[in-house]
Amino acid sequence: MNIYSQISANKTKTWLIVGLFILFITTIVFVYGKASGYGLSYAGIGLIISGIMCFASYYYSDKMILGMSNAKQIKKSDNPQLFRIVENLCIGAGIPMPKIYIIEDSAPNAFATGRDPKHSIVCVTTGILEKLNKAELEGVIAHELSHVQNYDIRLMSIVVILVGLVALLADFFMRSLWYGGRRDREKDNVQGVFLAIGIALAILSPIIATLIQLAVSRKREFLADASGALLTRYPEGLASALEKIAKDKEPLEVANNATAHLYIANPFKGKIDGSWFANLFNTHPPIEERIKILRSM
């Protein structure tokens, strides 16, 4: 598979997953409405609250992420080589120059954030600057700029909103059971069936939504790998960088569950379980698979 077909396949799979996610939420709202006897009114309240929360997170999530990561903005004079790499790749990608931040941590890693290319940020650790050569660093930066160029940050923000909405609806439904629904006696049997399905969904839907979120995240990593390789015209640079990052077993101290999916590689290296079940909840696809695909391009 060449770079262009890899990009096309990953885009198609991502939007298919997002479409299924929206269908999943629509089904949940229908079942909860039938089971509660209140119709869809409480779902509408959930949508309003979720919308307010999402509006705030959309505009301020980058600041919160940088604060949690202890990242500091740098100037060109602080690291001229890093700035030249970012500038050159931005010219090639046709996107504005992002702000550059650095995390003081010897674990090699990097991420991009921001709501669009005009408000983007690329953040790297001191460890990645020290441990990668220029070609490898270019591959990593190209990967992160591809996340910006492909609007992955915006997409993942939408997916996070959908996950939050599922959790909010499940919580509203379970709380409504304490107060009792408006029962129509002629429809008690039907409502009872929907009630049983609704309780099961309230328990399982947040888990299913999280798995869908992780599936989208993993597909966007594959897409960013392919787009980054296209930008540098040198897939081996990123493949070699990922190989070095994988061999380095030091976890990133400032990473947490809320920010882990942003990084180019899973920052919880010492906690990775190789079992099939554990891999379902990994924020990233297996790094060996990513390297294999890059070296087949």
Structural class: mainly alpha
Give the terminus-to-terminus CA distance.
Answer: 6 Å
| Fraction of helical residues | 55-70%
Strand order of the largest sheet: 1-2-4-3
Q: How many β-strand runs?
A: 4
Strand content: 5-15%
The parts where pLDDT drops under 50 for at least 5 residues are: 182-186
Q: Give the topology string: H per helix, E per strand.
A: HHEHEEEHHHHHHH
Radius of gyration, taken over Cα atoms and rounded to an integer in Å: 22 Å
User: Which whole number gives the mean pLDDT?
Assistant: 81
Give the overall shape: elongated
Domains, number:
1
User: What is the number of helices?
Assistant: 10
Characterize the largest beta sheet: strand count, sense, and whether it forms a barrel.
Answer: 4 strands, mixed
From the structure above, extract its key features.
297 residues; mainly alpha; 4-stranded mixed beta sheet; 5% strand; 10 helices
Describe the structure.
The protein has 10 helices and 4 strands. It has a 4-stranded mixed sheet, with helices on both faces. The protein is 67% helix and 5% strand. It is mainly α and 297 residues long.
